[in-house]
Automatic annotation (TrEMBL):
The lineage of its organism: Bacteria, Bacillati, Actinomycetota, Actinomycetes, Mycobacteriales. The keyword Oxidoreductase applies. InterPro entries: 6-PGluconate_DH-like_C_sf, 6DGDH_YqeC, 6PGD_dom2, 6PGDH_C, 6PGDH_NADP-bd, NAD(P)-bd_dom_sf, Pgluconate_DH. The keyword Ribonucleoprotein does not apply. This is Decarboxylating 6-phosphogluconate dehydrogenase. Residues 162-295 form the 6-phosphogluconate dehydrogenase C-terminal domain. Keywords: Gluconate utilization, Oxidoreductase. It comes from Rhodococcus jostii. It comes from the Bacteria. Belongs to the 6-phosphogluconate dehydrogenase family. Gene3D superfamilies: N-(1-d-carboxylethyl)-l-norvaline Dehydrogenase, domain 2, NAD(P)-binding Rossmann-like Domain.
Length: 295
């Protein structure tokens, strides 16, 4: 199949190469990289044959909104837009409504696989009309892992369902990473444990906590045993916040995911005002000693 792909960053570039290696003709566009196949979105659309499929892999928010709006003015009825970025599911519903007014289909596709997806394949969670999903299915099948791809694909529901599923996936990921990180720190704190990396490696097979994330942590420690070259500052890209917000909206308790999100906030505070207040209160009510700021 021929498809247009907008956004050739780490994920988009690797997806293009995986699809090409499986016989698809992919026209890529990204004004910020030298590997772009065309110069403009209009050029990309002109290189495709109807019914066209254009897959978007750009940052969520304004960048995705601008791209969808531009494509809405360039594409024709019967064409299809797939947003494979990490957009919020409510944005998908607005995009689908706008494109539907012009007879253009829309699919939201949560993509998981990171930079390893080019070789290993991706897990896909899609939302959209059944006929639109069927139209794009040859592309989805080529992106899925080899072997039994049915385990890594779901048509989760109508528009918005795919990105909602991916949002929750990323929220769970926050919690898993935080648990592994806390376990690592506790192991490091005990002098009896002289091979922390070895302990974590022993967990990677035959235990109930084995996972790809744990494998990656062991690899990271192999390259830098003390993680001395990595800052403790941890950013969040939005999905964890959205997961907590949706949990509140649905009255669903998600204490682990919430704590993991707050831990990331804490990582950005070199000297926490809240903890200063706790220290001051301990001194006030109990006369406990406080550490003064070095001048």
């Amino acid at each position: 199949m021929r498809m247009g792909l907008v956004g050739l960053g780490k994920m988009g570039h690797n997806m293009r190469e995986r699809l090409r290696s499986r016989g698809h003709d992919i026209v890529g566009y990204d004004p910020h990289v030298g590997s772009s196949d065309v110069d403009t979105l209009a050029d990309l659309v002109s290189r495709l044959e109807a019914p066209r499929i254009v897959w978007i892999m750009v940052p969520h928010g304004q960048a995705t909104q601008d791209t969808v709006h531009t494509l809405g003015n360039l594409l024709d009825p019967g064409d299809l837009v797939i947003d494979g970025g990490n957009s919020r599911f409510t944005d998908d519903q607005a995009h689908a409504k706008r494109l539907a007014a012009r007879g253009i289909g829309y699919i939201d596709c949560g993509v998981s696989g990171g930079i390893w997806g080019r070789e290993r394949g991706y897990a896909l969670m899609v939302g959209g009309r059944p006929e639109d999903v069927a139209q794009a299915m040859p592309l989805f099948e080529s992106l899925l892992p080899d072997g039994d791809p049915t385990k890594c694909f779901v048509h989760a529901g109508p528009v918005g369902a795919g990105h909602f599923a991916k949002m929750v996936h990323n929220g769970v990921e926050y919690g898993l990473m935080q648990a592994y990180a806390e376990g690592y720190e506790l192991l490091c704190a005990e002098h009896l444990v002289t091979d922390v990396q070895g302990v974590l490696r022993a967990w990677t097979a035959g235990t109930v906590v084995r996972s790809w994330l744990l494998d990656l942590l062991v690899e990271a420690l192999g390259a830098d045993p003390a993680l001395s070259e990595i800052s403790g500052y941890v950013d969040d890209s939005g999905e964890g916040r959205w997961t907590v917000e949706e949990a509140i909206r649905h009255s669903v308790p998600v204490p682990v995911i919430t704590a993991a999100l707050y831990a990331r906030f804490s990582s950005r505070q070199l000297d926490s005002p809240a903890m200063k207040a706790v220290s001051a209160l301990r001194q006030q009510f109990g006369g406990h000693a406080v550490q003064k700021v070095a001048l």
